[in-house]
Structure of Carboxymuconolactone decarboxylase family protein:
Amino acid sequence: MTTNTTNTTNTTNVAKAENEAVVAENVRLDFAKSARKAFRALIGFDAAAREGLDPALVELIQIRASHLNHCAYCLHMHTNDARKAGESEDRLHMVAVWREARHFFTEREQAALALTEAVTLVADGGVPDDVYAQAAAQFDEEELAQVLALIFTINTWNRIALSTGKVAGTDER
């Protein structure tokens, strides 16, 4: 047991040191410090977008958008947040392939995931009417607006993290 604990500790320390080295190499601006007003406004928008939504749904949306945007920083953060909120490992592993694993997700979650994909990849063909209609059938008008706002915010956060070179595993919240 001690050997496994020591190996795990050593592995964790090595990973932490590697992350710190990557961060040290990455000399991009700190958006939160350099654009304080914009950053605070986005935090407010994000908080408003989450209001009234199921926390598990919030994390699923954020995870899926982060997959699509290839944002490791946000993906790491939101999968950890989802685990803390009680999300199962099975469902977390299936988010990226939810269409092939529909039985893991409710109709409401599937509608939100489809809308997340359409809005995140909007340049690929807009938001199809059937995807919007599916979401509108699962959420009342206010909830649908909240879901859309959440999709907008996670896409913005992904772009900030990617543009400023945020490193997965270095979340400072």
